[in-house]
Design goal:
The chain is α+β, with helices and mostly antiparallel strands and 451 residues long. Helices cover 55% and strands 14% of the residues. The strands form 3 sheets. It has a 5-stranded antiparallel β-sheet. A hairpin with a 5-residue loop joins strand 1 and strand 2.
């Protein structure tokens, strides 16, 4: 199972989105907790430095140095900072030897951003009645500890949320992906023409089952309509072939057993020709239906294409010479494929027969077999009128005859038989421009299936 297929599943994407939303929620909650903690701890530190400064405000300057030493001795966490400075900022006492240059001496707490202090440290500077400056600071080790705790929780919770979201998404995506792949495999026979195949359902009634049910219902109706349409043509061809055969037999007896004038004999001859044309068309219709129903798959075997192509070339060589045409055969290495030899012979013969029919005298027909990386390719090129690009799909349909056909005899079913044989073998049939003339390409390897 491809990893990229898991990435493309809706289940995986939704799980990842929910995981990311959960991670964002965790980040927001922890961020709000941290902000609330910062506000609370900052307020506490402000009260500490202001209260400490007020307590030292009334101590005589001569005793402040001793008071500082006593307070420092009691500070086992080393979070308090004291300093006494002259009017000009010169140091007098305390563990702070330099007064910050931007320190406001208004008795209000402010953030201490000097090197050596934790981010968020608070301090206050007051001017004593004697004129000296009193500095009291409190380091933010508690706030830094809270920050580390919250950041650690953020990294772990966010990371686990993302990893678990990806893992859960991948696990939850496996079952729907397997079901989609099962539906793809079940669809392949339908693509190959087996309209009786249906998509599997799990019985759970989820959205995949609903889609499979809709597709199966559509296939039921398509199969019913298609076989109804096909049965009309098949039944008409079957029902009319018998009376047409009898009609031809009667016309033949009239021609052989009765004496007619030249005019009557010509009319009977034309009637026989038209009856033969109708019978040929009905036979072709039934032949296409037989091929489309896949009744010949049991006859698949290894077929040497080079021998088959050379045989067809030898068969049509006299006919081409009779029409003043040159038939060239170009075959490369021997190629074998798994196919129905009789059907391939019929399809190749139709292609060469069409080329002979539409190529004018003095023209050239080339029957070419080449070996591609995917398999053998048969090409039939002629120097006839060709088929306009807008009609190349239509001429593969039953009874359609292109404008270039003119008065050339035919039923418009030859290429339809070739297309039916190509569908049976899952080959690719394409019409192109031979400059001048028509180029028919038959890639004799199974077309790439949808996976």
């Amino acid at each position: 199972m491809q990893r990229l297929e898991i990435w493309r599943t809706t289940t995986f994407r939704l799980t990842v989105v929910y995981g990311m939303a959960f991670a964002i929620g965790v980040v927001a909650v922890l961020g709000l907790t941290y902000a609330s903690a910062v506000v609370f701890i900052t307020g506490q530190m402000n009260e500490i430095v202001v209260g400490q400064a007020r307590g030292l405000h009334d101590v005589p300057p001569a005793e402040l140095a001793a008071t500082f030493r006593q307070l420092e001795a009691q500070d086992i966490r080393h979070v308090y900072y004291f300093g006494l400075f002259r009017r000009d900022g010169g140091w007098i006492a305390g563990n702070v030897h330099h007064l910050p240059p931007d320190a406001p001496a208004d008795g209000r707490p402010w953030e201490l951003r000097q090197p050596g202090y934790q981010p968020g440290a608070r301090a206050v500077v007051e001017r004593l009645p004697s004129g000296e400056l009193l500095f009291v600071g409190f380091d933010a080790k508690v706030l830094s500890g809270v920050r580390v705790i919250i950041l650690t929780a953020l990294l772990w919770s966010g990371g686990l949320s993302i990893v678990l979201g990806l893992a859960v998404g991948a696990v939850l995506s496996l079952a729907p992906l397997r079901r989609i792949q099962a539906m793809q495999h079940a669809s392949q026979p339908i693509i190959d023409g087996d309209l009786s195949a249906r998509l599997p359902t799990s019985g759970g009634g989820d959205e995949i089952d609903l889609l499979a049910g809709i597709a199966n219902g559509m296939m039921d109706e398509v199969e019913r309509l298609l076989w109804a349409v096909k049965s009309v043509g098949d039944n008409v061809a079957h029902d009319l072939r018998t009376p047409l055969t009898r009609l031809r037999a009667l016309l033949y007896r009239v021609q052989q057993e009765t004496g007619q004038s030249a005019a009557h004999a010509g009319m009977i001859e034309q009637a026989l020709d038209q009856t033969d044309a109708l019978l040929a068309r009905f036979n072709a219709i039934q032949r296409i239906s037989e091929i489309d129903r896949r009744e010949r798959r049991a006859g698949f075997a290894r077929v040497p294409l080079r021998t088959l192509v050379e045989h067809i070339g030898e068969l049509y060589q006299p006919l081409a010479e009779q029409h003043g045409q040159r038939l060239l055969i170009d075959t490369q290495d021997a190629c074998e494929i798994l196919a129905d030899r009789d059907l391939l012979f019929e399809a190749f013969s139709n292609l060469v027969g069409n080329a002979v029919k539409f190529t004018p005298p003095g023209g050239e027909i080339r029957l070419r077999l080449t070996k591609q990386a995917e398999g053998p390719r048969l090409e039939v090129l002629d120097t006839g009128p060709g088929v306009p690009e807008g009609e190349r799909e239509a001429v593969l349909e039953r009874f359609y005859r292109g404008r270039q056909a003119g008065q050339t005899p035919g039923s418009g079913l030859g290429l339809s038989i070739v297309a039916a044989v190509a569908r049976l073998h899952n080959f690719t049939l394409a019409l192109g421009d031979a400059s001048p003339g028509l180029k028919v390409t038959l890639d004799c390897w199974p077309a790439a299936a949808v996976r």
